[in-house]
């Protein structure tokens, strides 16, 4: 797997929330990009011959963010 592509098309969230999502997946130690299937095709990351991607495409349609704070100032990352 060369990358994780995350399609957030149509999500009504802030740029900071998008960054939080991308950063969360970076802990997988692989390149993480925000891209739709069409974006991947345009970037040449879809193999037309074998009809495969060299990575994983996650499409997020709905997002519910939960934030938990304690007195120590630590926060729990959002659950996906």
Model description:
There is one protein chain. With 80 residues, the chain is an alpha/beta fold. It has one domain. Helix content is 22%, strand content 26%. The chain has 2 helices and 7 strands, in the order βαβαβββββ. The chain has helices spanning 15-26, 37-42; strands at 3-7, 31-34, 46-47, 52-53, 56-59, 68-69, 75-76. The strands form 3 sheets. A 3-stranded parallel sheet has the order 2-1-5, with helices on one face. The protein has a two-stranded antiparallel sheet with strand order 3-4. A two-stranded antiparallel sheet has the order 6-7. Strand 1 (3-7), helix 1 (15-26) and strand 2 (31-34) form a beta-alpha-beta unit. The longest helix is centred in the N-terminal third of the chain and has 12 residues, at 15-26. The protein is globular. It starts with a strand and ends with a strand.
Order of helices and strands: EHEHEEEEE
Strand order of the largest sheet: 2-1-5
Number of domains: 1
Q: What Rg is obtained from the alpha carbons, in whole angstroms?
A: 15 Å
Q: Please tally the β strands and state the result.
A: 7
Question: What structural class do you assign from the helix and strand content?
Answer: alpha/beta
Poorly predicted residue ranges: 69-75
Please count the helical segments.
Answer: 2
The percentage helix is 10-25%
What is the 3D form? globular
Q: Biggest β-sheet: count, sense, barrel?
A: 3 strands, parallel
Mean pLDDT: 84
- Note the beta-strand portion: 25-35%
Distance between the termini: 21 Å
